[in-house]
Queue: 4 jobs
Job 1
Amino acid sequence: MANSYNSIYLNNLSAFCARLSCGSLIELCKAVALGQVLNGVAIIRPPGHHAEPDEAGGFCLYNNVAIAARYLQKAHGLQKIFILDWDVHHGNGTQTAFYDDPNVVYCSIHRFDHGAFYPGDPVAAAHTAIGEGAGRGRTINIPWNSSGMGDSEYIYAFDKVIMPILYEFAPDFVLVSAGFDAAKGDHIGQMLVTPAAYGHMTHMLKSLAGGKIILALEGGYNLDSIAVSGLACAKALLNDPIEPLGSIVPNALCVQTIHEVIEVQSRYWKSLPQVYTDPIEEPVVGRHVVGMNKMMEAYRKSYLKERYDMIPMAKLESETGPAFLDNVHCT
């Protein structure tokens, strides 16, 4: 049976362990929702974010975080849920579960490698996957096309995309699919995120939703990296001091990726720089889009007038048309 799925391993206790893992997260969510504890970390396995609504996959039998989000909505009336997935792999199952849901924002920051990195979907894991129907803009993918991304790149993504959207969305609850396979030392993820960065990311997240935040363990293949990274997150939740970070200087590939994400997502989030410039596909009412050619035309006109006292040539009937004549200036 296991061989019929994608990367699934089973024994006679797998079903029980999967229910125990998912149930433990639900119990922790219940405690936080009722105010019995402020926040928490669910140290659970098997993980969940690769499990589709109707199929297991990627070591995941039940999608723990997705089920917990639905539980919080139905049992406690906490409608607006923000799910951040910082596991190095894209959480395809969680994205599928909420792809058309306007009340759940799913944000994944993952290694992509142009679709070659597991789960290997060049469409669903790309930055252009934004949700559908009422859920458009509620799926946010930040896909790295290279290994070696570290503290600067992850903190830059937080500053430029994740935190602005979080403050605008103002969730009732924050769930983190906290895989630690992007941690420094993990041989599968091959990323360089330090425990200090995980601590700072957790600290930023807990400023939302009145501090109601839960981290649920997902992937990770180096036990030492998982231990020290998870400890840093727990310290941040307990308001213990966090190790300082070095200077934040993201690499060029990171900056390019973040710019591409903002280009797509700025259409749906006012907190992002408004750089969406596709006036053809479903134009946004009330937003005036100006083409770069028009901007350059206005600049040239102003510059030539001030510097050389030149003005545009009077329009004439011509086969070349006005597009050419509008760029002819004379004294």
Job 2
Amino acid sequence: MLGDLIKGREKSAISLIEDSVEEPGRGLLSCFLLSLSQRMDEVHVLTFDPKSHLMLKEVAPDTQTKIIHHNFQNDFLKWNGSATSGLESDLLKEISAKGNLNKERKVAVVIDSLSCLLLFRPVPYTCQTLHRLCNSTITGANVEQVVALLHRDLHDGNSLTLVEHTASTVIQTSPSQSEGHEFCCNTLHKKISGKITRIKEHFNISENFEIDDLTELKAVVDTTPQQPTPQMDPAANLTFNLSLTEEEKRARSQVKLPYTYDQQKIEATLSSGEGKIFYQPDEADDFDEEDPDDDLDV
């Protein structure tokens, strides 16, 4: 799954890479960037983190012309009063100003990282920005894929959930459980057909930032036969007996209930040839024998 997503064989409008301090994901982001630079006409790279520029050095010289760098990392909060773009800038306008956007060109956007937007801008703004980047009627271009890195240990669960709902693919880095693999990730992919796929894979990243030794980690099924659990009798340790003997059951079945008529009385009524209505009042019924209109002079 991961290899198909990076190579573009599996379509994903918004791919989100969630990493942590222990399991960084910038190597995966570099794999996406190199693949996009070979397949797309333009790749807009929006950098917010201080180490983002190191990722651009891995791009081959023959594809450097496709990379359009939008530098937000120097003074994105505008504390120094520099003329560079900051977080208050409209990212769509920044991309449109530097790029040659039209529907005939294939465009991709790489963001490193979304954490700055989530920390200093409202969460709905970040989700709306991701959605607008993929909308060709707004950007004026055929944006085939948006890939963004997110440091999940910097944000609360509610913020992560909102961004994950916006993305079509969520790749979470995790500790490797295989001696022959350096990296591991859990991928949730929402296909165009609506099917949702969850998969856990181990892999290595080569010096050319390509995925090697990709192996799916399948859940281990325990085939050991389970011993049947003995059923507990809830009436086993009671001080009184809840069960009935056969003789007690027969005696109970012969008891005539007070609210029913026995067979002899029913036969006697039917043999008289007259229909009767049997009504047995309840204890709560209140009958007044006196005429309520007796005091009226009619």
Job 3
Amino acid sequence: MAKLILLTLVGLGLAFFRDHRSSYQRRFNVFREVEPVDLPNCHLIKGIEAGSEDLEILPNGLAFISSGLKYPGIKSFEPDKPGKILLMDLNEKDPEVVELEMTGSKLDLSLFNPHGISTFTDEGNAVYLLVVNHPNYKTTVELFKFQEEEKSLLHLKTITHTLLSSVNDIVAVGPEHFYATNDHYFTDPYVRSWELYLGLAWSYVVYYSPDEVKVVAAGFDLANGINISPDGKYVYIAEFLAHKIHVYEKHANWTLTPLKSLEFNTLVDNISVDPVTGDLWVGCHPNGKKLFFYDEENPPPSEVLRIQDILTEEPKVTQVYAENGTVLQGSTVAAVYKGKMLVGTVFHKALYCEL
């Protein structure tokens, strides 16, 4: 009897290991190799050497870029340097990046570790920048006001909350109002391992305002990028390890109702929305294993998808760019402005293209 029980337990253990390994391989897309899709008019952006994890382009062509993210377990080319926010004017013939000075606060810039970013422009055309920050691998959201003439950011406020314990990305719906994906990645190494390797779908999305903070969507296998439609009616959420983008309807009380999901053969990261067409531009990781287990001889590839007519029954998905890592490693985000495209990465460089 004891031998039978032992054999049963061993069998169950082997079955679990086999199923888990299969799940891990599927979720991280470990066997996918990239077929290159080249764009002829692209070059790497001078001055970005340690990541451009998120970026946002204003309607006037000014682009904010978060750089220097230190992500637990992920490669960093500048592990001892603080992160920074860069600015790029896409109206220039040969645009270059400049680092924005941060003023007016007690923010410890030596610990600045920027992740997802989002902007909000008020009725007076004042531009606010919200930045997910991970000082000492904790999570805060930093609120800045953009000073265009001075090329600087005036720090206004540090936002913390128990429901914002490990924020990945953010989309502003007001100067101090936003939706954020909370992925548990920065909370604890053991928790991180459970989420990554056991596939615990416990990421969630939070609505934050000074008056109310609440979970508005849950059950994601590492919720990542988030953005909103130009008319403000729909919220888009990237489910990183499930290879999905979800469409939610936004209501007047800030709650969200699921409408549809799209599935891809890639790990979807940040989502940018073209304010003119409403198209989604998504930075993706074709092979997640190469991202999390860095090998300079076999670096993580990059991929950019464009999704048109996402609310229709048959959205059009186009692979705009794909590369095996020899040029650009670990793409996270892509955004467009008047026929120009920027592509950012977790820890590597950034790409400027004329489409």
Job 4
Amino acid sequence: MDSGEKRLNELGYKQELRREMTLFKTLAISVSTVTLFTGITPLYGSSLRYAGPASLVWGWVVVSFFTWFVGIAMAEICSSFPTTGSLYFWAAHLAGPKWGPFASWCCAWLETIGLIAGIGTQAYAGSQTLQTIILLCTGTNKDGGYFAPRGVFFCMYMGLTIIWAILNTFALEVIAFLDIISIWWQVVGGLVIVIMLPLVALKTQSASYVFTHFETSPESTGISSKAYAVVLSVLVSQYSLYGYDAAAHLTEETKGADKNGPIAILSSIGIISIFGWAYILALTFSIQDPSYLYDVNNETAGAFVPGQILYDAFHGRYQNSTGAIVLLFVIWGSFFFGGLSITTSAARVVYALSRDKGIPFSSIWRRVHPKHKIPANAVWLCAGVCILLGLPILKVNVVFTAITSICTIGWVGGYAVPIFARMVMAENNFKPGPFYLGRASRPICLVAFLWICYTCSVFLLPTIYPLDWNTFNYAPIALAVGLALILLWWLLDARKWFKGPVRNIDVQNGKV
């Protein structure tokens, strides 16, 4: 019995999942969940358009700075509570016996909503990248290339979701192996893009343009306020820099989780902070004509700005798009691995919540495959809900904006509950793990909590004006309805029986 399993037993849980994940494997899954390309690529074009390159470039630095506060606060809690239930388990224990069940209930559902929507963001952006690859392989928008219509796009979205579910139904070794490929894919692929793209481009933008140029686009965004434009331009960074809690979801399957869990959380933030900024700089320096990127008559139909930047660079140098297609495939691979990892995390959260009877028909979703020791039913529940979430693709243009907002608010909002509970609890009630902040814990948690509140607020804002059915961000309505139902369920019924994490070990007597 290692230190992680011993601590798990002390918390009242028996070891049911297979504990074979090493630090490197856990880090691989965590980095794959945050991902280098999947946050930046789909929102890069809109963020650049809002306020120009300077706001985009320096916004990443600012967001990375505050993300470290959130990561450090979570690493301390993870070290003390190395359980698969992670955030909602932390909330229950940190909030105390009176408020613990309610804190756990809110955190669990926020996290569940965020993770399942996170699968949708990867499936949508992955389909968008694949759509561009197919377009360039069959010609271009100018040369009669095939641009997938809504129905085909939704089939791509659904296909990716189902493939991720199938892969997550196999043994954990398969997922761990694919995630090891993922981290090398992103590191090596990221280096290739960051180094090659500016070298291939016939011309590069000046440093003054990249680091100091500020320009709003009220004629296309409808936003004339410079402050508002800056806030929206930073959304790409806020959307990209989360997901590092994936290491916490796997702590019951990780060796020495009370030490390796925090290390994986902080290491993944460091890796993505550095590589993400380098990727943004590479794209921005390689822009050939800023105004041409959004032209609906350009080679990528104005639908995918990073794809147009790659096309302009390679076609300008070699008069063909082969290099752009290869690098787009590298980016698409990042979406594939990212979606696979988020499906793994989402299934673990649904499994943990079902184990504690917090989801309808919990007895179904908490079943573990007898051979592979995988919560297979939870995997397919997440996939099914994700597909339903993507149905508006068939009719509405702002689906990605809404899914992104729901994902970020749910996922990051779930971080706020245990961090706030840790901040206000009595210090003598906290049993620290190997990673302990001491007196620095409260100020770090305060900065982290305020940053999370700001992040959740800005994702509720409209992103395009004037408002109509094609530009309205329906995430606030979807979240309001969903959270209202969850709170109503709590008030009318769940508070009578939901007590938070349910122990399956009698710690005093050592009985299961």
